[in-house]
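Incident log, structure service

09:12 report received: a user says their structure output differs between two submissions of the same chain.
09:20 pulled the input from the user's history:
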Amino acid sequence: MPITRATAPYTGLAALLVLTTLAGCARPENGAPVAASPDPSTSSPTGAEPSTPAAPSPVAPSGRTPFSATDLPTLRRPTAPPDNPTDLRRPDLLAGRISRGGPGPCYGLVTDDGREYALHGENMGNWGTGTWVRVTVGPPASGVDCGPGTRVELRKIEPVG
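09:34 re-ran on a clean worker, output below:
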């Protein structure tokens, strides 16, 4: 591609950038020249390579130390399944299908694992049988019986899906 009057400044700028980059690569940060080959005067009489000093600890370009100079730990492969469940579940949160619906205050709930709950909650609305819901429950109110199942107080109910 011929250099035209419009591209000449860009070509010169590119050449200057390349030369500056190459000049920066020839010397380390402290300005000392880089040796192209080992100095023969420092070699040992036995012909073995001289020992090199320990490398300095890594330093970030800004002069600060890096976050970590060590490798990250690696988890070992498990040898057996966990003894306890690994998913933490809130004990006051249930999800399932309404088995006894209506305007309340008593409802029935069956969860996916087949557990049945007797829910009691005032002013929770009219829920139809078969509706999938998520409920927040608490300790049962004394003296209230809402039918078969584990008795709990209904604190919040919302449809799922």
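09:41 both user submissions now match this output. Likely a transient worker issue. Closing.
09:42 reviewer note: The chain is about 10% helix and 20% strand. The longest strand covers residues 150-159.
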